[in-house]
Amino acid sequence: AALEAALEGCQSLEVVFRAGARHVEDLRTVAKKLRGLPVLDVGLPTLALVGAPNVGKSSLVQLLSSGNPEVCNYPFTTRSIKMGHFFLDSRMHQVRCDPGHQV
Fold it and tell me: Checking DSSP bridges between strand 91-97 and strand 46-49, what pairing results, if any?
C-alpha cells in the first residue's frame, strides 16, 4: 500500500511539474537576462550619458571610469546599458552609457 501511494504521489508530482515546466523555463530566461543587466546603486551619484549615436559616449565612459564598453567607429555600437565607476573627492560615483537613438 505504501509503495502504491508513493508511486501515485510521484505521478501527481510529475503532472504538476510538466504543467509548470514552461513557466519555470520562462523564469530561467528572465533571470538570465536580469543577470546581464548592470547594477545601479541608487545611493551613489550617477552620471548618465545619453545622446545621438557615434558621438563618443562609450569613449567617455572608458576614459572616466572603470567601465570597458565596446568602442568602434560605427553607429549603434552600444546595444545595452554600460556601467563604470570613478572616484571624485574620495567618493565613488557611477557613470552609465545608454544606447544612442537615431533622431
Answer: parallel
Per the DSSP assignment, residues forming a β-bridge with 97 are: 49, 82
**Distance (Å, rounded) from C-alpha 6 to C-alpha 8?**
5
SS3 state of residue 97: strand
pLDDT digits (tens, 9 = 90+) for 13-69: 899 888 888 888 899 999 998 887 777 888 999 888 877 777 777 777 777 787 766
C-alpha cell at 87: 572616484
Decide: 63 and 33 in contact? Cβ < 8 Å: no
Backbone Cα Rg of the chain:
23
For the record, the C-alpha cell of 27 comes out as 523564469
Secondary structure letter of residue 90 according to DSSP:
T
Cβ proximity of 100 and 57 under 8 Å: yes
